[in-house]
Amino acid sequence: MEKKKYSKRYCRYTEAKLEFIDYKDIEMLKHSLSERYKIMPRRLTGNTKKWQERVEVAIKRARHMALIPYIIDRKKVVENPFKI
User: Fold this and answer.
1) CA-closest candidate to residue 35, choices 78, 84, 83
2) What pTM was computed for the model?
3) Number of structural domains, the chain?
4) How does pLDDT run across 65-81, given as a tens digit for each residue?
């Protein structure tokens, strides 16, 4: 059997040369959230460990400030919960 060849993952935060991740910047944080607004793991996003930890803290702060929802109902998935 042949092994599948995957493209090399890269950390978008390292390439952007950011100093920190602002929890108020929802558009930047959306890249690390699934369609049900769960935090995606490093192996899917390609983030480095340092930036993944910073993203998690920023997402948790945004949830605490009610900028991002904690949970979305499975039966009633809304396309964009920010427009409710």
Assistant:
1) 78
2) 0.76
3) 1
4) 999 888 777 766 666 66
